[in-house]
Specification:
The structure is a homodimer of 216-residue chains. Chain A is built from 9 helices and no strands. In chain A, helix 1 packs across helix 4, helix 5 packs across helix 8 and helix 7 packs across helix 8. With 216 residues, chain A is an all-alpha fold. The first copy, chain A, has a domain of 139 residues. Chain A is elongated. Chains A and B meet through helix 6, helix 7, helix 8 and helix 9 of A and helix 6, helix 7, helix 8 and helix 9 of B.
Chain lengths: 216, 216
């Protein structure tokens, strides 16, 4: 009876405990991912190890390695996680679409490429270009994030993609956004960027055709 | 008499020797700069030291340090040197200007951002973003190279810069070129790039106004 009781008690405790434990585990994972991105953006690949990130996240090294057995696991997961968060945030900015205000869409797309996520991703790309272990994973991740960003851009710009030239117009816009991100790496380029965004939003409007009714 | 003779002989030898010595020194300097860019592109900032570059250039470490006392001196000089060579090469491509063929100019500008120089510059920018010693010099260098590239682009595109929006149009084009360079870092992006260049050359032609006569 005592044994049964014990077993019951243990089972009960385990069941009761399971949900918070999963929550805790998820919260730990998320803290590690966010710390990894911040660390990569600030210190670059060379200065970013699992130990440094674990300390920053306030997580034991063992727990960090339980979630992410290798440094490559941690950093590719981190950049992917934040990129997904950004995609969600971008879509949330324009819940009904934003066809009428292409300037706002261009500005929001360009914003994806400034700030800590872009810096972190840039460090990861540059490290991957010289490290054989990292390259395939980062290349695959980059292709996935790139496709998703392109899809969102086409939607928000109300671009008629099958029309000749439209696909390449949107691709070039995202390349421009990436280049603006790079230009912002060493200096605060916000003012110049503002002018470029305004001008290319106009050119884009001409290229894609007006979507607001009545115009032209 | 012997002393005078000696002095004369020494003077003569020195004079005769001076020109080749300067040539040799210049050649050594250039070998170091080219080796530095190749090294930076292949191994990144962390893997690029004066010693590694000297060995690659076949120059003694002492001679390398005579030309470039610090690592920062060597690598900023290297990226500047190659950027200048590229600017000269770009102008030489279109000796009579290229107003009639904007597609060719856009392609040539984009070419500036692919290949080893861009990779080397990218490593330098990323390293500079995390290293206080390097940042001011790289920022200043980047501003100088950027202005020069902009000037060449305006010339070759026959862009009427005082017209509103033209400056920002050209800036956005160069940002796009930089972004295409970044997209080419991990994978061979030549085919996609080709399509973007063609389409953006068309957009640019519309934005800047046709320059070939007759084409309204």
């Amino acid at each position: 009876m005592g044994a049964v009781n014990s077993a019951n008690t243990i089972t009960t405790v385990t069941t009761v405990d399971r949900v918070p434990k999963q929550d805790r585990s998820r919260a730990t994972r998320q803290r590690l991912l966010e710390a990894a991105v911040a660390c990569l953006a600030e210190h670059g690949w060379t200065g970013s190890t699992v130990a440094v990130v674990a300390e920053r996240a306030g997580v034991s090294r063992g727990a960090a390695q339980h979630h992410f057995p290798t440094r490559e696991d941690l950093f590719t997961a981190a950049v992917e996680y934040v990129a997904e968060e950004r995609s969600l945030a971008l879509r949330a900015l324009f819940p009904q679409g934003a066809a009428g205000d292409r300037r706002a869409v261009v500005a929001a797309l360009v914003d994806l490429y400034t700030g800590p996520l872009f810096r972190a991703a840039l460090h990861l790309w540059v490290a991957a270009s010289n490290e054989d272990q990292l390259r395939p994973r980062v290349t695959e991740l980059e292709a996935r994030v790139g496709r998703e960003t392109h899809r969102i851009a086409v939607d928000l710009l109300a671009a008629d993609e099958p029309r000749p030239g439209v696909r390449e117009t949107v691709q070039g816009l995202l390349d421009m956004a990436r280049g603006l991100g790079l230009a912002n790496l060493l200096t605060d380029d916000a003012q110049r960027r503002e002018g470029v965004v305004t001008q290319w939003a106009t050119l884009l409007d001409d290229a894609l055709g007006r979507v607001t009714d009545g115009a032209a």
